[in-house]
């Protein structure tokens, strides 16, 4: 009985395999591809990442026999070189798969190099309320149709695909709906998105983002240097600087403006070492503001980003960083008054304010204008005003009245010629 059951299962498996072989299509045969339109969203500046994404979408559409490639365009310009832009436009114009460009949704723009890309497409459409052409002299959607810059208007991608059917692409059909004929899309919409790394690089090449990454990266490096952390700020800052370097390399960046931004952060760091805002803080603020405004040629970060970054860095470096440094290096004590009388070292000239080191921690310090303290001189803490120590030189400064009284008492001759503790007999002998 066991042998019979085994033979039955072997026969069943062989029969199933034979049916699968007979029913399988011949080697090399492919199932017919579904009719689809590849849609690629083009937003932001037209940069090398966008150019590569468009080229990949065209090649993929040809391999999958797509009905068309649809570029949804919303861009205020581009940063491609003349030869790269001409090659991209030629790719679009000579593509074996028809290329359609739709400027949308409502409020979208197609300026500069984006408008050149629109001109290379076989089918051109705009959404209501859009503008094309030159950013200094834009053309509205209705005028663009009248001037022949685009072919038709469509409020949505669906309406755009329906209108492509009138131009021989077979993207829609008429179906009865509620007793009335209506046109319905007959193709599948497939999103052609670039990879995550490509999207990250495209974002980093935005003027506002590249500028923000540059300043944040430099600020984090300064923070790591002065707080002596575990390296998180340094690693994050390095990543920001790498992404910023890519964005600045793609964008029309002015080297002198980058130098001013770096000088601005350096100026803040100098006064941070001194412990109080001085001349270098003013130099840093001015350098950062001028470098930020003039960072790009023909492009500019948004005014909101510029004001927010410059003001935020100034506030952080003048108020936030000193507090963080003190919190990082300060020595826990039961009451800050316990520090009075401690000796330390002047890290920067205290005249009248500067930085001193007490028990291995840097502190802002203040002294009397009549007794300035040089760098490296030993100081004594005589008082505390908030987070500022009042110090004086170890020698040559004003002394506490209790020390003066004690010293004078020690040097005063004994009353009646008798030293405290000395017996009469001992004096007489």
> What overall form do the CA principal axes indicate?
elongated
Low-confidence parts, pLDDT < 50 over ≥5 residues?
1-32, 399-410, 417-429
Strand percentage lies at 15-25%
- Mean pLDDT across the residues is 81
- Please report the total strand number as a whole number: 16
What composes the largest sheet?
A: 6 strands, parallel
Per CATH, the superfamily of the largest domain is 2-enoyl-CoA Hydratase, Chain A, domain 1
CATH architecture type of the largest domain = Alpha-Beta Complex
Order of helices and strands, N to C? HEHEHEEHEEEHEHEEEHHHHHHEEEEEHH
Helix content: 40-55%
Q: How are the strands of the largest sheet arranged? A: 8-5-3-2-1-11
Q: How many domains, as an integer?
A: 3
Tally of DSSP helical segments: 14
Would you kindly provide a written description of the structure presented here, covering whatever features stand out?
The protein is elongated, with a radius of gyration of 38 Å. It contains 14 helices and 16 strands. The protein folds into three domains: 159 residues, 2-enoyl-CoA Hydratase, Chain A, domain 1 (Alpha-Beta Complex); 122 residues; 68 residues, Nucleic acid-binding proteins (OB fold (Dihydrolipoamide Acetyltransferase, E2P), Beta Barrel), CATH 2.40.50.140. α2 runs parallel beside α3 and α11 runs antiparallel to α12. α2 links the parallel β1 and β2. The strands form four sheets. A six-stranded parallel beta sheet has the order 8-5-3-2-1-11, sandwiched between helices.
What is the fold's blueprint, element by element?
Layout: H1 2-23, E1 36-43, H2 48-63, E2 68-74, H3 82-93, E3 99-103, E4 109-111, H4 113-119, E5 123-126, E6 131-134, E7 137-140, H5 141-146, E8 152-153, H6 157-165, E9 172-177, E10 180-185, E11 188-191, H7 196-204, H8 207-227, H9 232-250, H10 255-274, H11 279-293, H12 303-329, E12 343-346, E13 353-358, E14 361-366, E15 378-385, E16 388-393, H13 401-411, H14 424-428
Parallel strand pairs: 1-2, 1-11, 2-3, 3-5, 4-6, 5-8, 14-16
Antiparallel strand pairs: 6-7, 9-10, 12-13, 12-15, 13-14, 15-16
């Amino acid at each position: 009985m066991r042998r019979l059951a085994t033979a039955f299962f072997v026969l069943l498996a062989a029969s199933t395999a034979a049916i699968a072989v007979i029913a399988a299509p011949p080697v090399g045969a492919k199932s017919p591809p579904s009719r689809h339109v590849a849609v690629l969203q083009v937003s932001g500046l037209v940069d090398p990442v966008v150019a590569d994404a468009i080229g990949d979408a065209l090649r993929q559409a040809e391999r999958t026999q797509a009905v068309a490639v649809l570029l949804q365009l919303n861009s205020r310009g581009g940063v491609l070189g003349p030869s790269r832009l001409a090659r991209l436009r030629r790719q679009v114009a000579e593509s074996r798969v028809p290329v359609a460009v739709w400027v949308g949704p409502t409020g979208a723009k197609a300026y500069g190099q984006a408008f050149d890309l629109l001109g290379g497409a076989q089918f051109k459409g705009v959404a209501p309320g859009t503008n094309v052409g030159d950013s200094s002299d834009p053309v509205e959607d209705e005028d663009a149709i009248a001037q022949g810059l685009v072919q038709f208007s469509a409020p949505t991608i669906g309406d755009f695909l329906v209108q492509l059917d009138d131009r021989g692409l077979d993207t829609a059909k008429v179906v009865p709906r509620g007793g009335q004929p209506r046109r319905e899309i007959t193709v599948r919409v497939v999103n052609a998105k670039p990879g995550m790394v490509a999207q990250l690089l495209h974002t980093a090449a935005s003027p506002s983002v590249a500028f923000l990454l540059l300043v944040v990266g430099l600020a984090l490096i300064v923070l790591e240097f002065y707080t002596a952390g575990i390296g998180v700020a340094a690693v994050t800052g390095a990543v920001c600087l790498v992404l910023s370097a890519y964005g600045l390399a793609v964008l029309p960046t002015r080297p002198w403006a980058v130098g001013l931004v770096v000088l601005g952060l350096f100026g803040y760091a100098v006064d941070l070492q001194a412990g109080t805002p001085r001349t270098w803080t003013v130099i840093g603020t001015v350098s950062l503001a001028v470098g930020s405004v003039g960072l790009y040629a023909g492009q500019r970060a948004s005014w909101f980003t510029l004001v927010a970054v410059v003001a935020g860095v100034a506030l952080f470096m003048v108020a936030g960083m000193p507090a963080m440094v003190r919190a990082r290096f300060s020595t826990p004590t039961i009451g800050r008054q316990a520090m009075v009388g401690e000796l330390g070292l002047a890290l920067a000239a205290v005249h009248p304010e500067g930085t001193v080191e007490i028990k291995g921690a840097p502190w802002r310090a203040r002294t009397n204008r009549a007794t300035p303290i040089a760098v490296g001189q030993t100081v004594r803490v005589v008082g505390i005003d908030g987070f500022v120590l009042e110090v004086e030189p170890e020698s040559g400064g004003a002394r506490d009245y209790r020390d003066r009284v004690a010293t004078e008492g020690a040097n005063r001759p004994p009353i009646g010629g008798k030293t405290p503790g000395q017996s009469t007999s001992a004096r007489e002998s």
